[in-house]
Structures
1.
Amino acid sequence: MAQPMVHAEGVRKHYGKLDVLKGIDLTVERGQVCCLLGPSGSGKSTFLRCINHLEKVDGGRLTVDGDLVGYRQAGTRLHELRESEVAERRREIGMVFQRFNLFPHMTALENVIEAPVRVNGVNKADARAEAQLLLDRVGLGDRAGHYPSQLSGGQQQRVAIARALAMKPKLMLFDEPTSALDPELVGDVLDVMRDLAADGMTMVVVTHEIGFAREVGDTAVFMDDGVVVEAGDPRTVLVDPEQERTKAFLSKVL
Amino acid sequence: MTASPASAPATRTEEAAVRADELTAVPVRHWSRWIAAALALLSLVGLVGSLAKNPNLHWDVVGHYLFADLIFDGLVTTLWLTAAAMAIGLALGTLVAVMRLSASPVLYALSSLFVWLFRGTPLLVQIIFWAYAAALYKHVMIGIPFTTITFVQLDTNSLLTPSIAALLALGLNEAAYASEIVRAGIQSVDPGQTEAAHSLGMKPALTMRRIVLPQAMRVIIPPMGNETINMLKTTAYVSVIAAHDLMSNIQDVYAQNYQVIPMLVVAALWYLALTTVLSVPQAWLERRYGRGTTRMAQVSPLRRMFVGVTDLLTTNRERKG
């Protein structure tokens, strides 16, 4: 069997005395969509941010495509890598944030070409052509020259997805991508994500959209209080869960 | 006061009788502003008149020296000192600010020491110190410490001319202040911007240069504009070490002809003219770095002023009508 895209074994993290991740085991295979669900404070966003080393883990093994992201292993020790080495490894992991985090001083197109040009050294003309295709793909081809402040939340989030895709990632991380959007704008963003999943992109999605997780997810992972409570086929976990905690959560959000 | 039909009290039926499409709104009339403006204008004219007629002011001396070569030489020195000191201040200040925000305790401590020292002592003391630094170290050497090997040896006195001493004092002092302004600017940028850049594989230095600093500029430019205008006037201090700036040359003249007030008027007129000119690039820069933030920032300052004046004129016309 091929190497899993994301593999976590006993991943631990604490802020001072507060344990936020108490040994997470999780595997995401290539081409799969894994949805992380759970109440706020359950550690799902923290875990997602550990995958591309925006948060540091304190112990356990977390690999992307077989490589440790922020560390080099020497015996039983994980030596943290320098920021510039971590940056190398982050290039192939795209991330989409809850608050979009588009660069406000750049147009939509400039946002998309920034990393390919500055990090990968793609020439500007090629990057522009590529970016235009990506913006067309997320339905914003005619908004290329707009600044983020001139776009709606849903449009900004779709530009953010295009920006992440421009680096040709092998894995996409989504941190509550629709939580900051007006309800009527959620659909457009989910459509783009559905499209990506259908294209075979490996995705880890922290979300409160139970419907999306059921329909698009290959696995659903329910987390609470820093542990994985239940994981498996979303049509089971999110419809007829075994654990009481999962049932209690679903009864509140549905 | 003009009694228009609209201002007279009307009964409900009279009000209702007016057709809705005939009704137009009239802005509040600010009579007190006109009175205040007239009073202010009157006192200004009085003041200017009294100054113009005062024989002690010697306008002929002012006229004679306003465009004198010596004054122009001083102006050139003042201008390059201002530009060079601000360039040093901004470059070094940015470096110090980045060091101060660094995770490294060594860099933090060094930058804090720098700011503490140069912000904590009077500029006048620093200017005189650099001018007399030769009294502390006779020679400046570049070599290997604790050996007799030296590559370059320079005489401090010939190295630290009054101009260089002035530039060093102004530049280092400015760097301490600028670093705090730049630091505030950097800290005003949402940390999510850095995270987004990092998640795209951008390294810390690239993130700072391409993402954080351009956004910090919006916060940095207005106070740095102030600093530049301040610097232009602060260069007058270097007259204490005879650095041949505008103020030094003005003093040289009135030390000989005793025309203190007329010569100070010459200085004041030039400083005023230069600070006025300096506010133009500031407005332009604010617009440049305001891109993508506010809609008004997209409108040029001249255009904004023009719109303001035409608004005023049109409301005036309505008032008269």
Note: Chain B has a mean pLDDT of 87.
2.
Amino acid sequence: MAENKEFKVIGTRPIRHDGIDKVTGRAAYGADIHFPDMLHGKVLRSPYAHARISSIDVSKAASHPAIKCVITSEDLPLVEDTITELGETVINLKHLSDNILASDKALYKGHPVAAVAATDPYAAEEALDMIEVDYEILEPVLDVRQAMEPDAPVLHESLKTESIGKKGDQSQNVASHSQMKHGDLETGFAAADVIVERDFSTATIHQGYIETHNATAQYNEDGELTVWCSTQGAFGVRDQLSKILKMPVSKIKVVPMEIGGGFGGKVQVYIKPIAALLAMKTRKPVKMTMTRTEVFEGTGPAPGSYIRVKLGADTTGKITAAEAHLVFEAGAYPGSAVGAGSLCIFAPYKIDNLQIDGYDVVLNKPKSSAYRAPGAPNACFASECVIDEICQKLDMDPIEFRLINGAKEGDRRCDGPIYPKIGYLETVEAAQNHHHYAESIDIKPNGKLRGRGVASGFWMNGGGRSSVTINVNTDGRINLIEGSTDIGGTRASIAMQAAEVLGISAEDVMPAVGDTDSVGYTGVTGGSRTTFATGIAAINAAEDIRAQMIGVAAKHWELRPSDVRFEDGIFLAQKNGDALRMTFKEVAAAGGPLVGSVTASPGGAGNGFATHIVDLEVDPETGKVDILRYTAIQDVGRAIHPSYAEGQVEGGVAQGVGWALSEGYLYNDEGHMTNASFLDYRMPTSYDLPSIETVLVEVPNPGHPYGVRGAGEVPLVPPLAAIANAVSRAIGVRMTELPMSPDRVLQAMGSI
Amino acid sequence: MPRKTHVQTEINGEGVEFLCEPRQSLLEILRDELHLTGSKEGCNNGNCGACTVRLGDRIVNSCIVLGVEAEGQQIETIEGIATPEGLHPIQQKFLEHAALQCGICTPGFIVSSKALLEQNPTPNEEEVRFWLAGNLCRCTGYHKIIEAVMDAAKPMNSEVVDNG
């Protein structure tokens, strides 16, 4: 087992390979691309949240001297209104294409309707004002519950509800209804001594990556399209471009530049097909970058949601039944994260009687996209708050309650699978034993109210396809080319796994992220899959290299490969009583260039669990909440580079603090976002946060040679409920709406 | 196209001249005209700090300073922080503390932090957090950035002692 091994590289904290480029400003991000003869693309976006497009007249804009090209949806190839496979997912092609450039209807404010390419960016902006669009303005739908009403305005005539495997015949905004159940709810609730049922709502929020979307496209006379861009997955971009533009994938090269944050929001394409189309029509390189407002109004936010949870427990603290009803904002097209949210909502617990209903509902907001553990933070906010209230009613310690009910190896997850070795209870025990939990919150005589909250969270973690090529150089160092874009230090975590196999240092590995022409197919950097799946590809490639080098050493010594051993980076053998020995570098020099290439699609991703503790203070005068102390405990399986694993946790907590307290799309009645800037969409600053203490629990994942589970998503799951539980305990009123902005806190306290 | 203005300035110790439209921001000049792309654009309205540079004796968001305002000024950008002798202690500490993930905000944080430590060589955590509140980072939760800056103050201070 992995825990018995001694590691030389894994668990150490080398300086990341791309570090110097990133602290000196040399690292090349998508917007840093420059061609001498390039054009600048800009998008005209719908000023209305819901409108039929009657006509578009581009003639005036096209006659502008600096404008080289104007496009609308008519310039996109016609695609069918059918579900199709796209890389590792399925998608409705018409929806995908219509979200790039609206055809018959604009479905959210910010929906692209036309685009221009000009010799300078200012002229491009001027030309947008010269495009004349006739809109028939329709009533927008902005709330999921309103959107589900039978008389609500319908976004898509062709959309019929898919309800538990059956297709309806009415046009509806409910795209799908899914259900998971086992046991018997009635029996379960009858056995309960205490039942809590509550409604929760969470605002539409944004991933908030600091780098806006960008794309630069070039089309050659031989039909080859190249797109340089910021993306979480170059192959996913290639797949989407191929479908939208109806081009063979082999004619498209996607070059992933450094990426300035994604968190799930840089998987879906927006301006990339537009830049490509403009480049194809002008035969010039076309560069496009979004403004921050375009990012807020035109790219996938995380879904707002409405969730009802009912939970019953007996006096011993055992959960007897659980029921959840989740309604998620899909945005303008179907496909919210309600499925994942439904799967995660009760996943940390063993519950014999449960039913979970999930609804995916379209409304006049941008098409929602993934955001770090998509769906799970919303869902667990509701369930973990209800658990806290049950604990209060039972007068039971919330950690004790979780120890009683927590899932472990052999228990069945709500969607069917039996848990293999998982580390949920280990995180709860670590929380119980942590000095934070042992120390009481000191109440300062400053008139402020203090509270402590606890919550847990779950994320599946992912596998999927990854490819790695290792080239051994004659100086004994290796180049490692991977398909995974590096958002937060994965060059280091992948390189370290290869180094461990080969007995060399992390510094002797030179990792590089390849474009779609230079490395094998690799899924997106997302789903907490990269250090796991690309790590396994790197381990397999390194094992191939090791076998080849054993062959080289054997040949050098005139022995059979089976006579050669490899220990701690040294090749060893016995011959005629002599102990033979060659270092990795010596074999590399003797063997000439060696290449090992692997594509892998490992299953066996290990589920991730976390338990968080937060202390905070509420100012009863202003309703403002200040986080005083935060401890995040997470089972990562194995931390390859502990600093970057901790970084994932710390970053997830900070995003959770924003989601809980200050972030949210504000809409007026017309469906216009009124806070589409970083000033008014309030993400936490360094001054809003305390130090975050991270505890990495390591319960190795049996599905990975070194025990890696993945770390990126689960830290965003517990904070919402942990903070809500702490606020609720501080003020003595249950908080059920996010964000818990000062006005909401004062309202809850009855002050306004 | 509006008539361009001739601007003379000094960037990272070198004399630089450029032609500038009155509407162009300093950030646009740095990135698009001079190809100093280390300063990043995150919001273009002074809220995120990714474009932080030093202009004269203060740090500014270069996205809300006009290019023409650079006339006669001394500017320092992320490209001028390391020297031929090596990285600046703040850059080194950012690496050692893993104080960056995606790295897009990093240039702004380093320029801001350097200005802080030059003005206040021994800041406490509260002071560092307050100073850096104009720089948004979405990846790290700031924890390791704060540690890196506090730690960088140590070698910088010992350097001062050595020189003295």
Note: The beta strands of chain B are 5-11, 14-20, 52-55, 58-61, 74-76.
